[in-house]
Write a structure and sequence with these properties.
Shape: globular
Distance between the termini: 37 Å
Helix content: under 10%
Length: 128
């Protein structure tokens, strides 16, 4: 399974971006049963979990720092997950990664080490 994250870029504070995470794999692969997480890592900082959406019922969870500004969603027919980011601030500057984990995680949201697949990351820079 491969994950391709895209949609990053340079934006001014207050603006929006939508990140996409497209999954591909063997013939007949479906993202339906995978939870998708978005993570980010800023220079000199630890990786941070941003949001996660379950594969079973579409439950979502957000980091406090993005709650009310970011929205995670998925389109299983397209094997794609999205992260809509509004009201961006310079503190949101980071490389954003998507990751997928199959059913059976030990907890919700799944801890980072349980994710099976990771995308390559897309840079988001918020600056005036």
């Amino acid at each position: 399974v491969q994950l391709q994250a895209s949609g990053g870029g340079l934006v001014q504070p207050g603006n929006s971006l939508r990140l996409s995470c497209v999954a591909s794999g063997f013939s007949g692969f479906t993202l339906d049963y995978y939870a998708i997480g978005w993570f980010r890592q800023a220079p000199g900082k630890e990786r941070e979990g941003v949001s996660c959406i379950s594969g079973s019922d579409g439950s979502t969870v957000y980091a406090d720092s993005v709650k009310g500004r970011f929205t995670i969603s998925r389109d299983n027919a397209k094997n794609t997950a999205y992260l809509q980011m509004n009201s961006l601030t310079p503190e949101d500057t980071a490389v954003y990664y998507c990751a997928a984990v199959g059913p059976g995680s030990s907890s919700w949201p799944p801890p980072p080490h349980e994710y099976d697949y990771w995308g390559q990351g897309t840079q988001v820079t918020v600056s005036s």
